[in-house]
Structures are given as C-alpha cells and as structure tokens.
Amino acid sequence: MGGKVRLSLGFVLLVGCLVFAGMAWGRTVAVVGDETIEEEEVLALLRQHTEGSDALSGVLLSRMSAEERRAYIESLADWLLLAREATLRGLRLRPDVAVFLKWSAIGILGQAYLAELRKEWDFSEAALRAQYEAHAKRYAEEDAVRLRWCVAPDENRANRMLLDLLGESLPSLPRGEDNSSGVCCVDTDWLRRDALPQGIVEEIFRASPGTTGGPISTEEGYVVFRLLQRREGHLLSFEEAEDRVREDLRDVYLQREMERVRQKANISMDEMVLMDLGNIPAR
To answer: Which residues pair with 222 in a beta bridge?
Structure first.
C-alpha cells in the first residue's frame, strides 16, 4: 500500500463495521486521553475491505509499512479527539447529529442481528434445490435479441440507413449519435421483449438472424434494424441459477423474520403527517 493510510469519516462510521459479537479483546494499540484503540477494533475496521475475513484483515495489516500503520492509528486517534470535542460542545444533542447517531446505532444492531440469523438459515444444497424446484419459472431466461438499432428523425434518412443495412455494411454514419443529422445507430446488448417499443417488438421477434426491417415509426423516431442474434427462452439449470436461488432463499428467510417481528409490534402511521411530508421546504 503506497502513501499514508488515513480514514475518512464515512469509513469510520460505516454501518456495521463495528459489530464485534463474540470477540476476545486483545492488546491496546493506543491510548487517546481516556479512550483506547484496541487491536481487535483495528482488525474490525479493516474487515470491510476483506469481505469480513479476519485472516485477510491480518494480511492487510502485515503488508502495511510501520509508517503506514502508524498513520492509520493516528487517523483513528484524530477522530476520537474530534468526537470528544464535539461531545464537549454538546453536539451530541443537536437534532441533526442526534438523528444520525440514533440511526447509525439502529443500523449496526440490525446488521448484527441479521448476521446472527444467517447462521441459522439453511443454505444446504437440499434447501437450495427445494427453492429452485418450487419456483422454477423464476429461473427461466426469456427470449432475447441483439440488434443493430438505428433511429432517424425522418423517414427519408431512415430509408438511407436501411439501404446501408441491406447492403450488409455498417451505416455510413459513425456509431452513436450524430448531432448534425439527428441519427443514432448502435449495436445493442441482449434485449427482452419488455425493453423494446411495443410497435416493433413482434416484428423483431418474428425475424430470423440477419433479417433487416423498418423504417417503423416510434415515439423515438423512425427505426430500422438488423437482427444480429436471437436467444430462445429456456429454463436455467440448478447449477446456472444457483446464485439467484441463494439470493431468493435468503429473501424468503428475511421476509419470514420480518413478518414475525412485525406481528409483535404495534406499528401505526399518521396519514396526515405522511401526506404532508412532501410539502416540507428544503433547508
């Protein structure tokens, strides 16, 4: 790591970075007035850069030079000093600061609770396959196409571009937008039906690769196209969909937990205040 290591305020206050459930505290790295900076605190702050890995946090520290480590600890000490001065000035009680402190603490506790819950959630292959089989339609790829897509502001210019496409050459205009003519021509990524204008989607999906069509009037202008590739919709295998299945199963577990905790709480909203939120003047 080159240069001095300094911590930004966002780095220090990142929600969840100071959750140390079950940690055994180690040695004191520094004393700042009546506050201390502990070894495990330093490692915990580094975890956000190593996907929560204690081992990699240690490696990151070991790769720092002595000067970089000193600068890193000094930056933590600086924030402790600034926080102490803020407390002496009563800033903890200032409404905007109090709100941030409150919701930072709430976020940290919420993240810690979710981390504990995840240890109990079942992500075994059997559980993942059960999720996949129960919701197979969620893991189907829809029909999609890749196009050479050209839009012109009038039909005459669109017809000239169509001739270029029929000649199997690139349009004579450069890719992207040509401000002098108002013509735009791009090769698209994979597009599903819902990504295309309704007036042209059926014609495109009936076409075969290599087919050229247009001009067709749309809200964007006059469209001409060449179908470059077509991909038929198909059901992803479990192996192909496994990451998506895992995310969906995590959401299922989370939703169940939220339903459980909501049932224990009395949640009410003031509809008048809720409606009036949009009328709060900017400060």
So the answer is: 152, 217
Using CB atoms within 10 A of its CB, is residue 132 exposed (0-12), middle (13-18) or buried (19+)? Answer: buried
pTM for this entry: 0.60
CA distance 54 to 59: 9
Sheet holding 212-218, edge to edge: 176-178, 183-187, 144-152, 221-231, 212-218
Lowest mean pLDDT among 24-33, 99-108, 216-225: 24-33
Alpha-carbon gap, residue 28 to 4, rounded angstroms: 22
Helix (H) or strand (E) holding 185: strand 183-187
Q: HSE-up of 182 (CA within 13 Å, CB side)?
A: 11
Q: Please, where are the H alpha helices in the chain?
A: 9-13, 39-46, 54-63, 66-88, 95-120, 125-134, 155-166, 198-206, 238-264, 271-276
- Written as six digits, the tokens of 149 are 């897509």
Query: Nearest Cα to 184, choosing from 145, 144, 157?
Result: 157
pLDDT tens for each residue of 29-67: 999 988 899 888 888 887 766 665 666 767 777 788 889
How many H helices and E strands in the chain? 10, 9
The two tokens of residue 204 are 């495109």
